[in-house]
Amino acid sequence: MSRHQKDPLRPLTPDERTELTRLSRSQSAPAAEVARARALLAIAEGASYTAAAHLVGRGHNETISAWVSRFNREGLAAVHPHHGGGPRLRYGVHEQQRILAEWARAPQREQDGSATWSLSLLQKALRRAPDGLPRVSRFTIARTLHEAGLSWQKSRTWCATGVSLRRRKDGLVRVSDPDAAAKKS
Predict the structure, then answer these.
(1) Of 81, 101, 122, 176, which is the most buried if we count CB atoms within 10 A?
(2) CA 169, CA 177: separation in Å to the nearest integer?
(3) pLDDT (tens digit, 9 = 90+) per residue, 17-63?
């Protein structure tokens, strides 16, 4: 027989029950969310915390107790895991938007020292801008660009693949490699 819980699960609303049922049967949702939904539904149907823990593969019922307490406070938002540890993210949405805005700006040759962005040049520009990010790292910039589906390498359109200008006695000559497309892929 289980002990009396300090914070028992509150009655579920019909919308909450429907959403938890949908999530507990999901094949594509994150496993942590599915496990939380299954445990909460089991407790709502009368299972003990220990039985719910065994149902979702947890060894202790303290985890289930924490999930129930959080669900009582936050509702369906409690099914989604919070930050899992490690240092907190230093740059939020506003800072990431600032990085993307700087990336979208065409670099100025005199001010930035180049006609195209590299991660290092983008980092220097962000660090010295008055509204910039004085401690941003190249990793943070690369991660932000990657999450946005961008790459600093994809923006290098100044150099056509397989075509170059060579200095000859008669002046500049455009030289092209007929096998460039085959070598590229």
Answers:
(1) 122
(2) 21
(3) 999 999 999 999 999 999 999 999 999 999 999 999 999 999 888 88
3-state secondary structure 119-168: HHHHHHHHHHCCCCCCCCCHHHHHHHHHHCCCCCCCCCCCCCCCEEEEEE
Reported as a pLDDT band with limits 50, 70 and 90, residue 5 is low
Structure tokens at 93: 């949405």
> Torsion-angle region of residue 31: left (phi > 0), alpha (psi -120 to 50) or beta?
alpha
- Helical segments of the chain, H only: 14-24, 31-44, 49-55, 61-74, 93-104, 109-112, 119-128, 138-147, 180-184
| Residue type, position 105, single letter | R
> What sign has the CA pseudo-torsion 59, 61, 63, 68?
positive
Nearest to 42 by CA among 28, 70, 61: 61
Single out the residue of 29, 49, 28 nearest to residue 40, CA to CA: 49
The model's pTM is: 0.52
Number of other CB atoms surrounding residue 24 within 10 Å:
20
| Cα distances (angstroms) measured from residue 81 to each of 41, 45, 104 | 17, 23, 33
Q: Which of 43, 49, 79 is nearest to 61 (CA)?
A: 49
Per-residue tokens: 147: 């999450």
